[in-house]
């Protein structure tokens, strides 16, 4: 499912029916209905955790910029790409 257009103003939230379980160095996301499993590491975990409640992608970028020494443009680009992938996999949903 393609989601467009995605921007820093897009509000996202964790999709229903996704279970999260900590792994050794990662967070495992499990969609029981489809018997799928995904692994997130590093900033991917922070992105996932930030979307427990509806949040703008830009707010996630702001939080990551406070946590990591990274260029703002690079951060925004990478977060948009990660969120797009999670949306397409049905792990995130767009929020009103």
Can you put this structure into words, describing what you see?
The protein is α+β, with helices and mostly antiparallel strands and 96 residues long. The chain is built from three helices and six strands, in the order E-E-E-E-H-E-H-H-E. It has one domain (13-91). The strands form two sheets. Strands 5-1-6 form a three-stranded antiparallel β-sheet. It has a three-stranded antiparallel β-sheet with strand order 2-3-4. Helix 2 crosses helix 3. The radius of gyration is 13 Å and the shape is globular. 21% of the residues are buried.
Write the layout of secondary structure elements.
Elements: E1 11-14, E2 18-22, E3 27-31, E4 36-40, H1 43-50, E5 55-56, H2 57-67, H3 72-88, E6 92-94
Antiparallel strand pairs: 1-5, 1-6, 2-3, 3-4
Helix pairs in contact: 2-3
Keyword list:
single chain; 96 residues; alpha+beta; three-stranded antiparallel β-sheet; 3 helices; 6 strands; 25% strand; globular
């Amino acid at each position: 499912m393609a989601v467009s257009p995605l921007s820093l103003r897009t509000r996202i939230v964790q999709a229903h029916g996704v279970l999260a379980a900590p792994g050794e160095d990662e967070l495992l996301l499990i969609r029981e209905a489809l018997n799928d499993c995904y692994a997130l590491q590093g900033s991917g975990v922070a992105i996932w955790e930030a979307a427990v409640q509806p949040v703008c992608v830009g707010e996630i970028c702001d939080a990551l910029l406070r946590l990591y020494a990274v260029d703002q443009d690079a951060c925004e680009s990478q977060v948009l790409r990660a969120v797009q992938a999670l949306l397409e996999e049905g792990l995130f949903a767009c929020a009103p």
